[in-house]
Amino acid sequence: MNFTIQNVLIATDDAYTTTDVKVVEGKISAIASNLDVVGTAVNGENKLLLPGFVNAHTHSSEMWQRGIMSVLPLELWLAELYDFAPLDTEKVYLSALGTAVETLLSGGTSVVDHLVLIPGQELETIATAVRAYREIGIRAFIAPLIQDESLTAGIPSGETERNHEPYFRSTADTLAIIEEAVRQFHRPEEGVNILVAPTGIQLCSDALFTGCIELSDRYNLCRHSHLLETKAQEKLAQEKYGCSAVEHLKRLGYLGDRTSLAHCVWLNDIDIEILAATQSTVVHNPLSNLRLGSGIAPILKYRQAGVNVTFGCDGASSNDSQDLLEAIKIGSILHNTTDRDYQHWITPRQSVEMAALGGAKALNMVDKIGSLTVGKQADLVLYDLTSLSLLPRTDPIGLLVLGRPTNAVDSAWVNGKQIVVAGKVNSINVDELRQKLFQRSQWDTQRKSQTVAEIEAHYRTVMGL
Amino acid sequence: MNFTIQNVLIATDDAYTTTDVKVVEGKISAIASNLDVVGTAVNGENKLLLPGFVNAHTHSSEMWQRGIMSVLPLELWLAELYDFAPLDTEKVYLSALGTAVETLLSGGTSVVDHLVLIPGQELETIATAVRAYREIGIRAFIAPLIQDESLTAGIPSGETERNHEPYFRSTADTLAIIEEAVRQFHRPEEGVNILVAPTGIQLCSDALFTGCIELSDRYNLCRHSHLLETKAQEKLAQEKYGCSAVEHLKRLGYLGDRTSLAHCVWLNDIDIEILAATQSTVVHNPLSNLRLGSGIAPILKYRQAGVNVTFGCDGASSNDSQDLLEAIKIGSILHNTTDRDYQHWITPRQSVEMAALGGAKALNMVDKIGSLTVGKQADLVLYDLTSLSLLPRTDPIGLLVLGRPTNAVDSAWVNGKQIVVAGKVNSINVDELRQKLFQRSQWDTQRKSQTVAEIEAHYRTVMGL
């Protein structure tokens, strides 16, 4: 497990230097020129070494529906998604592997999987994802997606009186499942973490949030949630609480420095101050926000207010990929259209810091990962700067962030263990994965969602369409 | 040159069918099941066949500065770009090849190269691009970039009195160069076309536009130009003409059904009607518009008004890639944030039509390319649906447009000639190209643009920053 990368390019404050990086027992033990080789010697020539990025929000099993979801806004899209959700753990296993492969080959060494649970097989679903991530070796943050209200409750009522089916599982039972998952699977030192992760204010009671806070405090767990992804959710929060969702979550005590919040598209200036004051993290999912027409999150405002921001791919049904470099690129340049003063725009080096250190902060891991620092865990990615997509030679980080790197990841290590070698994931058999994904699916264009048909008229009315 | 693709998936009106496609003497001669094989048999199993797309706006030599350009808006970015523009034809040759390779491997079979000319070596620059594109075999539309005003004239004056250096070459000399280029290189039947292409109203006199119109009429040439890419250009048009740039171009007679206009970000409703009435084409370059903070072009409005829209990568210094599928994806989903009614959003099948047939229309080639139609030229792309990035199997076109396809192009033909085989461009030596791009460049982060330093203060004042 010990190795020394020789003559590799790393970023300095505003330039690059060529150096050696030594890793001993999973940790970076030295960064300097001409180090004695310990363990395997890795040729770093014409390669760039960066800390691994964090894919800070995804839903792995959505991979089964990527490419086929209708062009719809979140609330209707969710209805279609759940009408066709995969219901067997073998599929969960394969899509967790697929998500990890695409994340690793685009610079990610950690993944936050806001994992959709198969009803009645909740612990089995979590166990399956844990198994997949352990096998492939990516650092895993499994955030079982929970709610205690039924789907239609997530759409504002507007002027109408509406009744919703009760959710099929009680709040207490849901919390018990999470606590059991923590007991069985939460092993941070082994790279497997369980998070508390109510889906969001739109489908969760205060009791569920409060229960999650208790679990988080008792077991030292990070907290995750969707937050104000759509205009409809902003409206719903006002209906439900008479205040913004952020103010409500603050009162409940859900926000804090180990809380990460996906999307954050519809926050006002006071909300932004609250996120800054509570040191909460925004996980920006630009591709999903565009695909679902959710809006453009005010990321430059977050940065100016001192809010930590990092990137996620979101589930592959709303992206429809798990290429983290694509999310970083679009999540960086998208905001240049929102502020005419280019001095506020995100630079490629800032993007890299957001994706690596920003992700570490989101997960309360800032002392352990997120930068090339002696003493930190060796979650590292080595990019091949002779890839056509990174040529001609100019600024390597600029090429990586603003270009469209293909086949650019040469090697990746998690906790010092190498899991990408010469551009291939070597901890699992990727060809076999491809074959299974192929065999268990079929080309399809004709499917129709029954639930969308049922709720679309109400959605259009209440949203003024 | 004759071949028959067997058992390949093609799109029907709203589904897919498996069929054979026969190509004889560069043209599609039959599309039906169980055709007799003529020429080479190509196995189409688990592959999708689409018409080749058009990369309808780029500047190939910008490849030399991709990744390194500062985070700046167009007017300042241009100053930096020209301070470091490559000035030898060998570089022009290599970047034309690089642009073609990336376009081909992302579904494009035609490229519109708004080619930056080396001062004093204008015809040599054009000859070099022609040579590169002939060698690689992509269908080339070379649009030599011309202007007759100097760079500072492209920034609005605002309240200040400003004098600009005269441009180094006369309008007449510029037009003579284009006419000579047409005589030497315009060979549509051989896949090499010359376009008239003043850079735009911001740096061109009426005389230059009028001269281009005359050449276009005399030699049956398509017309190309940038149009209203930035807020500053909208301002400048008012200063220069007292009306919108579109109205001015209409009066000059530049618009029409073989005119394509890159960007079109800052058009008003009357401008849009003019584009529709003149049957002009908008070339949407979403990544460049984001990268330079130019804005979001009102593409859904164009479509509703009946304006033809297609996609371009724009030059690699403002993108910073030539991946056409990326431009198509972002250029499709970006607009979901601009119109709350999802019934107006672009579907993946519409995106494909915009990229293929829309591109053909832009280039007055609608009878010859842009769809799988018997009698049309065989500009075809075959996608490998067993690529991990296109799995699991769902809707192939959805996966292609909304996903992040990597290593997905299996084969490509231009005019019936195969130039991508088993995922590799085989008409040139791509490894040698990589090596030359590597050798002729160096990693760099410290460069500073003198011109930006000179003009930035004025830019900030006049733009109210």
UniProtKB/TrEMBL annotation, chains A, B:
A GO term for molecular function: hydrolase activity, acting on carbon-nitrogen (but not peptide) bonds
Residues spanning the membrane: none
SUPFAM superfamilies referenced in this protein's UniProt entry, alphabetically: Composite domain of metallo-dependent hydrolases, Metallo-dependent hydrolases
Lineage: Bacteria, Bacillati, Cyanobacteriota, Cyanophyceae, Nostocales
InterPro entries (alphabetical): Amidohydro-rel (IPR006680), Metal-dep_hydrolase_composite (IPR011059), Metal_Hydrolase (IPR032466), MTA/SAH_deaminase (IPR050287)
Record keyword 4Fe-4S present: no
Protein name, entry field: S-adenosylhomocysteine deaminase
Pfam families per the UniProt record, alphabetical: Amidohydro_1
Species this protein is from: Nostoc cycadae WK-1
Domain Amidohydrolase-related residues, every copy: 49-418
Keywords: Hydrolase
